[in-house]
UniProtKB/TrEMBL annotation:
<protein>
    <recommendedName>
        <fullName>Cupin type-1 domain-containing protein</fullName>
    </recommendedName>
</protein>
<dbReference type="Pfam" id="PF07883">
    <property type="entry name" value="Cupin_2"/>
</dbReference>
<dbReference type="InterPro" id="IPR053146">
    <property type="entry name" value="QDO-like"/>
</dbReference>
<dbReference type="InterPro" id="IPR014710">
    <property type="entry name" value="RmlC-like_jellyroll"/>
</dbReference>
<dbReference type="InterPro" id="IPR006045">
    <property type="entry name" value="Cupin_1"/>
</dbReference>
<feature type="domain" description="Cupin type-1">
    <location>
        <begin position="40"/>
        <end position="155"/>
    </location>
</feature>
<dbReference type="InterPro" id="IPR011051">
    <property type="entry name" value="RmlC_Cupin_sf"/>
</dbReference>
<dbReference type="InterPro" id="IPR013096">
    <property type="entry name" value="Cupin_2"/>
</dbReference>
Length: 180
């Protein structure tokens, strides 16, 4: 196998789509805007034979995202810069809360309701998830060539958000507030 560089596509840079070595320069990857965030997929299920996906999320200080759960998707948060507060409801129904700072790590096992809120401008998070879920952000949001945060924020229609939720097994729990 020969190492590859990501190739410019119609919207940002497209990943190889198969398990071959490749490199990305800073900011490259499959970018999408969702609400006030820029999500960049660095590695997808296509390159890992369905095992996992890797993405970054850049966002300003803002509101918590809706509480949600993924029945079969594990998710990690690794804060590269800024701060993010993560809430998780564990299997016993207890609410766990932690403010993550640069270098801090959080893990959400599949099936547990969780949410997070960016607590500082210029926050960057590295996320790793079960393969396939990394593409939720583009399905719910909109692909972009931009390296900047969306201005104005991109608010998907309720129908688009619900359809992406169904496709990527993301159950929104509007009845459950963990961030209160």
């Amino acid at each position: 196998m020969t190492a590859q560089f990501a190739q410019p596509g119609a919207r940002g840079f497209s990943l190889p789509g198969e398990p071959v070595p490749f490199f990305l320069e800073a900011g490259e990857g499959e970018r999408a805007h969702l609400f006030d965030s820029l999500v960049t997929v660095l590695l997808s299920k296509d390159e890992t034979q369905g095992q996992f996906g890797v993405f970054t999320l850049a966002a300003p200080k803002g509101e918590a995202i809706p509480t949600h759960a993924h029945a079969d998707v594990h998710e990690i948060f690794f804060v590269l810069g800024g701060r993010a507060r993560v809430w998780i409801q564990d299997a016993a129904g207890e609410r766990l809360e932690r403010l993550l700072k640069p270098g801090d790590f959080g893990y959400v096992p599949a099936g547990l309701p969780h949410t997070f809120r960016v607590e500082a401008d210029d926050t960057r998070i590295l996320g790793v998830c079960t393969g396939g879920f990394e593409r939720f952000f583009a399905a719910a949001g909109t692909r972009t060539d931009s390296f900047a945060l969306p201005d104005p924020p991109y608010a998907p229609s309720p129908e688009r958000l619900a359809a992406a939720g169904r496709e990527f097994r993301n159950e929104f729990r509007f009845d459950l507030r963990l961030d209160g």
